[in-house]
Amino acid sequence: MLLSLEDLTVQVPGTARPLLDSVTLTVAEGEVVGLVGESGSGKSTTAKAALGLLPAGADFAGSVRVDGTDVLGLRGEALRAHRADTVAMIHQDPRATLNPVRRIGDFLVERGATKERAVELLAAVGLSDPEQRVRQRPHELSGGMLQRVVIAGALAARPRLLLADEATSALDVTTQAEILAQLRTAREEQGAGLLFITHDLHLAAAYCDRVYVMYAGRVVEERSARALFTTPAHPYTRGLLTCTPTLGDSQPLTPIPGRPPSLSDTFAGCPFAPRCGEAEEECDTWLPEPVFLEERGLLEAGAPSEGGAPLEEGGMAACRRVVGRRSAGRWGSPRSSEAESGGGWAQRTTAGQPKDKVSHK
Ligand SMILES: Nc1ncnc2c1ncn2[C@@H]1O[C@H](COP(=O)(O)OP(=O)(O)OP(=O)(O)O)[C@@H](O)[C@H]1O
Protein backbone atom coordinates (compact mmCIF):
# COMPACT_ATOMS: atom_id res chain seq x y z
CA MET A 1 0.00 0.00 0.00
CA LEU A 2 1.35 3.41 -0.97
CA LEU A 3 -0.14 5.42 1.92
CA SER A 4 -1.46 3.75 5.03
CA LEU A 5 -2.64 5.59 8.13
CA GLU A 6 -3.49 3.15 10.86
CA ASP A 7 -5.53 4.21 13.85
CA LEU A 8 -3.82 7.61 13.89
CA THR A 9 -4.73 9.81 16.85
CA VAL A 10 -3.16 13.26 17.19
CA GLN A 11 -3.63 15.66 20.09
CA VAL A 12 -2.06 19.03 20.79
CA PRO A 13 -1.77 20.47 24.31
CA GLY A 14 -4.65 22.64 25.48
CA THR A 15 -7.45 20.99 23.48
CA ALA A 16 -10.15 18.85 25.01
CA ARG A 17 -10.24 16.30 22.21
CA PRO A 18 -7.82 15.06 19.54
CA LEU A 19 -7.41 16.75 16.13
CA LEU A 20 -7.46 13.24 14.66
CA ASP A 21 -9.15 10.35 16.41
CA SER A 22 -8.26 6.80 15.30
CA VAL A 23 -8.03 7.68 11.60
CA THR A 24 -7.44 4.69 9.32
CA LEU A 25 -7.03 5.51 5.61
CA THR A 26 -5.23 4.05 2.60
CA VAL A 27 -4.23 5.18 -0.89
CA ALA A 28 -3.03 2.54 -3.33
CA GLU A 29 -0.62 3.13 -6.19
CA GLY A 30 -2.47 4.80 -9.09
CA GLU A 31 -5.57 5.43 -6.99
CA VAL A 32 -7.42 8.76 -6.53
CA VAL A 33 -8.84 8.91 -3.02
CA GLY A 34 -11.09 11.74 -1.85
CA LEU A 35 -11.15 13.17 1.66
CA VAL A 36 -14.19 15.31 2.40
CA GLY A 37 -15.72 17.02 5.41
CA GLU A 38 -16.56 20.43 6.77
CA SER A 39 -13.93 22.93 7.83
CA GLY A 40 -12.00 21.76 10.89
CA SER A 41 -12.81 18.06 10.43
CA GLY A 42 -9.10 17.18 10.20
CA LYS A 43 -8.52 16.79 6.46
CA SER A 44 -5.35 18.91 6.26
CA THR A 45 -3.93 17.40 9.44
CA THR A 46 -4.42 13.95 7.88
CA ALA A 47 -2.65 14.95 4.66
CA LYS A 48 0.23 16.64 6.48
CA ALA A 49 0.76 13.47 8.51
CA ALA A 50 1.72 11.77 5.21
CA LEU A 51 4.53 14.33 4.93
CA GLY A 52 5.69 13.33 8.40
CA LEU A 53 4.39 16.67 9.65
CA LEU A 54 2.35 16.93 12.84
CA PRO A 55 1.56 20.12 14.79
CA ALA A 56 4.45 21.19 17.06
CA GLY A 57 4.30 19.50 20.44
CA ALA A 58 1.61 17.04 19.34
CA ASP A 59 1.21 13.64 20.94
CA PHE A 60 0.24 10.86 18.60
CA ALA A 61 -0.67 7.19 18.59
CA GLY A 62 -0.96 4.88 15.59
CA SER A 63 1.16 4.92 12.45
CA VAL A 64 1.63 6.59 9.05
CA ARG A 65 3.40 4.54 6.39
CA VAL A 66 4.32 5.63 2.87
CA ASP A 67 5.55 2.74 0.75
CA GLY A 68 6.10 0.81 3.95
CA THR A 69 8.24 3.51 5.61
CA ASP A 70 7.11 4.77 9.02
CA VAL A 71 7.21 8.49 8.20
CA LEU A 72 6.53 9.73 11.74
CA GLY A 73 9.77 8.02 12.73
CA LEU A 74 11.83 9.83 10.06
CA ARG A 75 14.27 12.54 11.11
CA GLY A 76 16.87 14.78 9.50
CA GLU A 77 18.06 13.89 5.99
CA ALA A 78 15.67 10.92 5.68
CA LEU A 79 12.67 13.16 6.43
CA ARG A 80 13.94 15.86 4.02
CA ALA A 81 14.37 13.26 1.27
CA HIS A 82 10.87 11.86 1.93
CA ARG A 83 9.32 15.32 1.54
CA ALA A 84 11.41 16.18 -1.52
CA ASP A 85 11.23 12.93 -3.47
CA THR A 86 8.36 10.70 -2.37
CA VAL A 87 5.45 12.98 -1.50
CA ALA A 88 4.31 16.34 -2.93
CA MET A 89 1.62 18.58 -1.54
CA ILE A 90 -0.41 21.09 -3.56
CA HIS A 91 -2.18 23.78 -1.52
CA GLN A 92 -5.15 25.97 -2.37
CA ASP A 93 -3.13 29.19 -2.65
CA PRO A 94 -0.22 28.90 -5.11
CA ARG A 95 1.22 32.19 -3.84
CA ALA A 96 1.92 30.51 -0.50
CA THR A 97 4.18 27.99 -2.30
CA LEU A 98 5.91 30.26 -4.83
CA ASN A 99 8.63 32.73 -3.87
CA PRO A 100 7.50 36.09 -5.39
CA VAL A 101 11.04 37.16 -6.33
CA ARG A 102 12.18 33.87 -7.92
CA ARG A 103 11.61 33.01 -11.56
CA ILE A 104 9.18 30.18 -12.43
CA GLY A 105 12.04 28.18 -13.98
CA ASP A 106 14.12 28.45 -10.77
CA PHE A 107 11.15 27.13 -8.76
CA LEU A 108 11.03 24.02 -10.96
CA VAL A 109 14.80 23.50 -11.01
CA GLU A 110 14.86 23.73 -7.19
CA ARG A 111 12.41 20.81 -7.24
CA GLY A 112 14.69 18.60 -9.23
CA ALA A 113 13.82 19.46 -12.87
CA THR A 114 16.50 20.22 -15.46
CA LYS A 115 15.94 23.44 -17.44
CA GLU A 116 14.65 21.42 -20.39
CA ARG A 117 12.30 19.41 -18.22
CA ALA A 118 11.04 22.62 -16.56
CA VAL A 119 9.80 23.74 -19.98
CA GLU A 120 8.31 20.30 -20.67
CA LEU A 121 6.53 20.27 -17.32
CA LEU A 122 4.95 23.67 -17.91
CA ALA A 123 3.75 22.52 -21.33
CA ALA A 124 2.42 19.31 -19.78
CA VAL A 125 0.25 21.21 -17.29
CA GLY A 126 -1.24 23.26 -20.13
CA LEU A 127 0.67 26.54 -19.91
CA SER A 128 1.15 28.34 -23.22
CA ASP A 129 4.59 29.74 -24.16
CA PRO A 130 6.47 27.61 -21.62
CA GLU A 131 9.89 28.88 -22.82
CA GLN A 132 8.81 32.39 -21.90
CA ARG A 133 7.07 31.35 -18.64
CA VAL A 134 10.25 29.91 -17.12
CA ARG A 135 11.75 33.42 -17.20
CA GLN A 136 8.71 35.08 -15.60
CA ARG A 137 8.02 35.82 -11.93
CA PRO A 138 4.79 34.87 -10.11
CA HIS A 139 3.22 38.36 -10.25
CA GLU A 140 3.20 38.13 -14.07
CA LEU A 141 0.86 35.09 -14.07
CA SER A 142 -2.82 34.67 -13.12
CA GLY A 143 -3.96 32.52 -10.17
CA GLY A 144 -4.93 29.64 -12.47
CA MET A 145 -1.57 29.77 -14.27
CA LEU A 146 0.27 29.83 -10.94
CA GLN A 147 -1.63 26.77 -9.75
CA ARG A 148 -0.48 24.97 -12.92
CA VAL A 149 3.10 26.00 -12.08
CA VAL A 150 2.71 24.58 -8.57
CA ILE A 151 1.40 21.31 -10.01
CA ALA A 152 4.35 21.22 -12.43
CA GLY A 153 6.60 21.71 -9.38
CA ALA A 154 4.82 18.91 -7.53
CA LEU A 155 5.40 16.59 -10.49
CA ALA A 156 9.05 17.63 -11.00
CA ALA A 157 10.49 15.04 -8.63
CA ARG A 158 8.10 12.31 -9.90
CA PRO A 159 6.61 11.75 -6.42
CA ARG A 160 4.89 8.47 -5.60
CA LEU A 161 2.15 10.25 -3.64
CA LEU A 162 0.39 13.55 -4.45
CA LEU A 163 -1.56 15.37 -1.74
CA ALA A 164 -3.96 17.96 -3.20
CA ASP A 165 -5.41 20.11 -0.40
CA GLU A 166 -8.30 22.13 -1.88
CA ALA A 167 -5.96 22.51 -4.86
CA THR A 168 -8.70 23.54 -7.28
CA SER A 169 -11.16 25.24 -4.92
CA ALA A 170 -10.15 28.81 -5.78
CA LEU A 171 -10.22 28.28 -9.55
CA ASP A 172 -12.96 28.89 -12.11
CA VAL A 173 -14.71 25.71 -13.25
CA THR A 174 -12.94 25.47 -16.63
CA THR A 175 -9.47 25.78 -15.10
CA GLN A 176 -10.54 23.42 -12.32
CA ALA A 177 -11.59 20.78 -14.85
CA GLU A 178 -8.31 21.12 -16.79
CA ILE A 179 -6.18 20.87 -13.66
CA LEU A 180 -8.09 17.85 -12.43
CA ALA A 181 -7.53 16.20 -15.81
CA GLN A 182 -3.80 16.97 -15.59
CA LEU A 183 -3.57 15.51 -12.10
CA ARG A 184 -5.26 12.38 -13.38
CA THR A 185 -2.82 12.17 -16.30
CA ALA A 186 0.12 12.56 -13.92
CA ARG A 187 -1.30 9.79 -11.81
CA GLU A 188 -1.64 7.53 -14.83
CA GLU A 189 1.78 8.34 -16.32
CA GLN A 190 3.73 8.23 -13.07
CA GLY A 191 1.62 5.58 -11.32
CA ALA A 192 1.31 8.02 -8.41
CA GLY A 193 -1.43 7.84 -5.79
CA LEU A 194 -3.49 10.97 -5.18
CA LEU A 195 -5.18 12.06 -1.96
CA PHE A 196 -7.70 14.68 -3.04
CA ILE A 197 -9.03 16.94 -0.28
CA THR A 198 -12.16 18.96 -0.92
CA HIS A 199 -15.21 20.42 0.79
CA ASP A 200 -17.22 19.40 -2.26
CA LEU A 201 -18.65 15.92 -1.93
CA HIS A 202 -20.13 16.02 -5.43
CA LEU A 203 -16.73 16.83 -6.92
CA ALA A 204 -15.09 14.06 -4.91
CA ALA A 205 -17.75 11.57 -5.98
CA ALA A 206 -17.25 12.52 -9.63
CA TYR A 207 -13.46 12.59 -9.61
CA CYS A 208 -12.23 9.99 -7.14
CA ASP A 209 -12.13 6.19 -7.07
CA ARG A 210 -12.84 6.04 -3.35
CA VAL A 211 -13.88 8.66 -0.78
CA TYR A 212 -13.44 9.05 2.97
CA VAL A 213 -15.82 11.32 4.87
CA MET A 214 -14.45 12.94 8.03
CA TYR A 215 -16.28 14.55 10.91
CA ALA A 216 -14.74 15.95 14.10
CA GLY A 217 -11.38 14.31 13.49
CA ARG A 218 -12.85 10.89 12.71
CA VAL A 219 -13.56 8.96 9.53
CA VAL A 220 -17.30 8.30 9.53
CA GLU A 221 -17.63 6.61 6.14
CA GLU A 222 -15.41 5.17 3.40
CA ARG A 223 -16.91 4.03 0.13
CA SER A 224 -16.31 3.71 -3.56
CA ALA A 225 -17.16 7.13 -5.06
CA ARG A 226 -20.15 5.74 -6.91
CA ALA A 227 -21.58 4.02 -3.87
CA LEU A 228 -21.09 7.12 -1.75
CA PHE A 229 -23.12 9.12 -4.22
CA THR A 230 -25.88 6.59 -4.84
CA THR A 231 -26.21 5.04 -1.40
CA PRO A 232 -24.65 7.40 1.13
CA ALA A 233 -24.82 5.50 4.39
CA HIS A 234 -23.91 7.82 7.23
CA PRO A 235 -26.44 10.57 8.07
CA TYR A 236 -23.56 13.08 7.90
CA THR A 237 -22.64 12.01 4.36
CA ARG A 238 -26.25 12.31 3.29
CA GLY A 239 -26.41 15.73 4.94
CA LEU A 240 -23.34 16.86 2.99
CA LEU A 241 -24.90 15.68 -0.28
CA THR A 242 -28.19 17.48 0.30
CA CYS A 243 -26.52 20.77 1.24
CA THR A 244 -24.16 20.93 -1.78
CA PRO A 245 -25.57 22.36 -5.03
CA THR A 246 -25.28 20.41 -8.28
CA LEU A 247 -25.73 21.62 -11.82
CA GLY A 248 -29.23 21.09 -13.17
CA ASP A 249 -30.61 19.95 -9.81
CA SER A 250 -33.62 21.99 -8.77
CA GLN A 251 -33.98 20.29 -5.38
CA PRO A 252 -33.86 22.84 -2.53
CA LEU A 253 -30.64 22.72 -0.51
CA THR A 254 -31.05 21.53 3.04
CA PRO A 255 -28.28 22.72 5.35
CA ILE A 256 -27.11 20.43 8.13
CA PRO A 257 -28.40 22.10 11.30
CA GLY A 258 -25.91 23.43 13.85
CA ARG A 259 -22.15 23.71 13.50
CA PRO A 260 -19.25 21.25 13.58
CA PRO A 261 -17.81 20.88 17.08
CA SER A 262 -14.72 22.79 18.15
CA LEU A 263 -11.68 21.20 19.76
CA SER A 264 -12.98 22.27 23.18
CA ASP A 265 -16.13 20.14 22.73
CA THR A 266 -16.06 16.58 24.06
CA PHE A 267 -18.57 13.81 23.51
CA ALA A 268 -19.82 10.88 25.48
CA GLY A 269 -21.13 9.29 22.27
CA CYS A 270 -21.37 10.03 18.54
CA PRO A 271 -19.97 13.53 17.77
CA PHE A 272 -22.59 14.00 15.04
CA ALA A 273 -25.56 13.10 17.28
CA PRO A 274 -26.40 16.73 18.28
CA ARG A 275 -26.88 17.59 14.56
CA CYS A 276 -28.30 14.28 13.39
CA GLY A 277 -31.98 14.05 12.51
CA GLU A 278 -31.83 10.28 13.04
CA ALA A 279 -30.10 10.23 16.41
CA GLU A 280 -31.49 7.85 18.99
CA GLU A 281 -31.01 7.84 22.71
CA GLU A 282 -28.06 5.50 22.61
CA CYS A 283 -26.19 7.74 20.12
CA ASP A 284 -25.44 9.99 23.12
CA THR A 285 -23.43 7.26 24.76
CA TRP A 286 -22.14 5.04 21.93
CA LEU A 287 -19.59 5.93 19.31
CA PRO A 288 -20.28 4.19 15.98
CA GLU A 289 -17.41 2.60 14.13
CA PRO A 290 -16.78 4.20 10.72
CA VAL A 291 -19.06 2.86 8.01
CA PHE A 292 -16.82 0.75 5.80
CA LEU A 293 -19.69 -0.92 3.98
CA GLU A 294 -17.84 -2.87 1.35
CA GLU A 295 -15.03 -4.02 3.58
CA ARG A 296 -17.09 -5.05 6.54
CA GLY A 297 -19.64 -7.18 4.79
CA LEU A 298 -22.66 -5.11 5.76
CA LEU A 299 -23.88 -5.40 2.19
CA GLU A 300 -24.24 -9.12 2.59
CA ALA A 301 -25.85 -8.45 5.95
CA GLY A 302 -28.75 -6.61 4.38
CA ALA A 303 -27.64 -3.06 3.61
CA PRO A 304 -28.59 -1.79 0.13
CA SER A 305 -26.52 -3.13 -2.72
CA GLU A 306 -24.13 -0.99 -4.77
CA GLY A 307 -26.24 1.19 -7.04
CA GLY A 308 -29.39 -0.06 -5.35
CA ALA A 309 -32.07 1.88 -3.57
CA PRO A 310 -30.90 4.89 -1.56
CA LEU A 311 -30.69 4.14 2.13
CA GLU A 312 -33.49 6.57 2.91
CA GLU A 313 -35.80 4.27 0.98
CA GLY A 314 -34.48 1.38 2.96
CA GLY A 315 -35.57 3.38 5.98
CA MET A 316 -32.43 3.10 8.05
CA ALA A 317 -28.95 4.59 7.96
CA ALA A 318 -26.08 2.16 8.04
CA CYS A 319 -24.77 3.57 11.31
CA ARG A 320 -28.13 2.62 12.87
CA ARG A 321 -27.85 -0.88 11.45
CA VAL A 322 -24.50 -0.88 13.17
CA VAL A 323 -26.21 0.29 16.35
CA GLY A 324 -28.42 -2.76 16.07
CA ARG A 325 -25.36 -4.99 16.00
CA ARG A 326 -23.61 -3.46 18.95
CA SER A 327 -25.49 -5.60 21.39
CA ALA A 328 -23.73 -8.58 19.84
CA GLY A 329 -20.46 -6.88 20.77
CA ARG A 330 -19.18 -6.65 17.21
CA TRP A 331 -19.45 -2.97 16.49
CA GLY A 332 -18.80 0.33 18.19
CA SER A 333 -17.24 0.99 21.53
CA PRO A 334 -18.63 2.38 24.75
CA ARG A 335 -17.12 5.71 25.69
CA SER A 336 -17.91 5.53 29.37
CA SER A 337 -14.33 5.93 30.59
CA GLU A 338 -13.82 9.06 28.50
CA ALA A 339 -17.18 10.52 29.42
CA GLU A 340 -16.65 9.93 33.12
CA SER A 341 -13.15 11.33 33.08
CA GLY A 342 -14.14 14.44 31.17
CA GLY A 343 -12.68 13.34 27.84
CA GLY A 344 -9.03 12.76 28.75
CA TRP A 345 -7.22 11.24 25.78
CA ALA A 346 -4.75 9.39 27.94
CA GLN A 347 -7.52 7.16 29.22
CA ARG A 348 -8.82 6.32 25.75
CA THR A 349 -8.71 2.78 24.58
CA THR A 350 -9.37 1.23 21.20
CA ALA A 351 -10.96 -2.21 21.19
CA GLY A 352 -9.94 -2.47 24.82
CA GLN A 353 -6.26 -1.82 24.12
CA PRO A 354 -4.49 1.15 25.70
CA LYS A 355 -2.99 3.45 23.09
CA ASP A 356 0.77 3.95 23.06
CA LYS A 357 1.24 7.69 23.07
CA VAL A 358 4.30 9.20 21.40
CA SER A 359 5.39 12.82 21.57
CA HIS A 360 6.21 14.45 18.25
CA LYS A 361 8.76 17.26 18.64
N1 LIG B 1 -1.10 23.27 15.15
C1 LIG B 1 -2.34 23.23 15.61
N2 LIG B 1 -2.60 23.52 16.89
C2 LIG B 1 -3.88 23.49 17.36
N3 LIG B 1 -4.95 23.19 16.61
C3 LIG B 1 -4.75 22.91 15.34
C4 LIG B 1 -3.44 22.90 14.75
N4 LIG B 1 -3.56 22.57 13.44
C5 LIG B 1 -4.89 22.37 13.22
N5 LIG B 1 -5.59 22.58 14.35
C6 LIG B 1 -7.04 22.41 14.52
O1 LIG B 1 -7.34 21.08 14.18
C7 LIG B 1 -8.64 21.00 13.58
C8 LIG B 1 -8.50 20.30 12.25
O2 LIG B 1 -7.80 21.18 11.37
P1 LIG B 1 -7.57 20.83 9.84
O3 LIG B 1 -6.87 22.01 9.22
O4 LIG B 1 -6.93 19.51 9.72
O5 LIG B 1 -9.07 20.75 9.31
P2 LIG B 1 -9.61 20.77 7.82
O6 LIG B 1 -10.68 19.74 7.75
O7 LIG B 1 -8.47 20.65 6.87
O8 LIG B 1 -10.23 22.22 7.72
P3 LIG B 1 -10.27 23.24 6.46
O9 LIG B 1 -11.20 22.61 5.47
O10 LIG B 1 -10.83 24.50 7.04
O11 LIG B 1 -8.87 23.37 5.97
C9 LIG B 1 -9.14 22.44 13.48
O12 LIG B 1 -10.00 22.67 14.58
C10 LIG B 1 -7.89 23.26 13.58
O13 LIG B 1 -8.16 24.53 14.14
TrEMBL record:
UniProt main location, coarse: membrane
CDD domains named among the record's database cross-references: ABC_NikE_OppD_transporters
Keywords on record: ATP-binding, Cell membrane, Membrane, Nucleotide-binding, Transport
Compartments it resides in: Cell membrane
Annotated region described as Disordered, given as residue ranges: 325-361
Domain ABC transporter as annotated: residue spans: 3-241
Pfam families recorded: ABC_tran, oligo_HPY
GO molecular function terms noted in the UniProt entry: ATP binding
Membrane topology: Peripheral membrane protein
Organism superkingdom: Bacteria
InterPro entries named in the record: AAA+_ATPase, ABC_Ni/Peptide_Import, ABC_transporter-like_ATP-bd, ABC_transporter-like_CS, Oligopep_ABC_C, P-loop_NTPase
SUPFAM superfamilies found in the cross-reference section: P-loop containing nucleoside triphosphate hydrolases
Family annotation (Gene3D superfamilies): P-loop containing nucleotide triphosphate hydrolases (3.40.50.300)
Family: Belongs to the ABC transporter superfamily.
Protein name per Swiss-Prot or TrEMBL: Peptide/nickel transport system ATP-binding protein
